[in-house]
Structures are given as structure tokens and as C-alpha cells.
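Q: Could you fold this chain for me?
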Amino acid sequence: MSAQASNPCIICVAITGSVPTKANNPAVPITIAEQIESTHAAFEAGASIAHCHVRDDAGLPTSDPERFARLKEGIETHCPGMIVQLSTGGRSGAGQARGGMLPLSPDMASLSVGSNNFPTRVYENPPDLVDWLAAEMLKYDVKPEIEAFDLSHIVQATRMAADGRLKSPLYVQFVMGVKNAMPADERIFDIYIETLNRLAPDAVWCGAGIGANQVVVNEWSIKRGGHTRAGLEDNMRLDRDTLAPSNAALVARAVDLCAKYDRPVATWQQARTILGLRPVTV
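A: Sure. Below is the predicted structure, expressed as C-alpha cells.
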């Protein structure tokens, strides 16, 4: 048995996001019912975390806690044990409205600890809002997924853990390939890993690539012993000419890469243990 064979890989599925529409790809799940069905298929394919955004009746992004509650309940019912991770991202709301779903006490929630450029705007995460979101996550026993769009975000997250604003061990996701932010560069990827290991040796990390970079970053992550993310939020194609038929298809591609590198796909039970999440009974 190789060393990798005893290191399960957690696969997160990012089901919808705030940007993709059915005009981009008809498989993008927009309604709560579609999201639950798509998540169930991805769960069956091997995903153990569901990264969730919600949309309003017009299909626009929202931070509506009631919609998040219905989606959370549906995933917990139809995907028993799956880790529910709700987004506090800035495309869905402003200010403290971004954390309005945290009293639902999901297993996890995304947390961006710094600002950066997006394709057409600045993704603003001011320090006071970051501190408030982090405090709410501590209050409601929600494990943050630190979304690192820049090297400084890794440094900031480790500072926040050191002074108690975040609970250790950290879970950090390296996001690469967003236009105007950090490119999908393998050498930079290795610098991210080295920096996190040096500053927070007990941290767990995940890699996410945007667009055509999704499968590239999937492979870098799996090969290096980390965890990874797939899904229609980040990428709507299997290749330049082929739309992805589902979230499950993108998860299946990551599962195939796990086999290539002798990495077992983490079950939801293993994922909860690796991340130090509260146990659930199913």
C-alpha cells in the first residue's frame, strides 16, 4: 500500500455559485429542488461537502436565510451525513446580511479574510466584516472554510487563528484562476502549501480552480495529498467543446484522478473526522 492510499481525499462540490446561469449551461441548478437533486447525484458520485449558494425567484444571487434553510434541510434529508457548507460570499449580499444564514448552524461556511480583484469588480472583505463573520461562526459552531484568493489571505487566516478569532486547525482553500486575482500557477500553488504548512502545521488544505483550470488544480491537489473542489459554480465545461452535463460529472472526473494517484475518496464520515466536525447520526 502506498502512503497516498491511507490519505483519503475530500471532494467538495460547488453546486451553483452566484454567476452561472442556465443560459451558460442548462445543467446549472437554480431552484432549491434542482439544487437538492443535483447535490444528491454529486454525493452519490463521491462528494462529501456541498458548497451552497441560493438564488431568488428571478434566479439572482441572494443571502436569504429562509432559502438557505430549505436547501440545508433538503440536503440533510436526501444526502444523510453530507457536510453542508453555506456561502457568505460578497456577490450574494452586502455587509452583515452576508452572514444572515449562520444562525442555522451549518457544518461549515465560507470565509474570505481579505479583499482582491475579481473580473470586473473589487471583492471587498473589510476587516470589521471579516471579524464579525468569524465571531458569528464561533458563536454558532460553524467551521470556516478560508477562501484564499491571495497569499496574504493565508497569512491573515493564520494570524486570526493565533489570536483566537478563528479556531484551529484551519481549513484553507486555495482559489486559483479567477481573472485579475491569483492565476493557476503550479509554482505559486506549491508556495501556498509551503506557507500554510510553515505558519499552521496542523491546517488542512483544498485546491479549487476556475474554468478550464478546475481539472488542473484538481490534479495538483490530489497528487500532493490535499483535498479538492469541483462543480458548476467554478466551471461549466468538460472541455472546450463540451458542456458538463451535471455537477456529478465534474465530481466523477475528480474521483478518477484520485484513482490515478492511489487516493481513496473520503466518505462523509472520514471527511467529518479529518475536518474535526461535530458527529451526526443518520
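A (continued): The radius of gyration is 17 Å.
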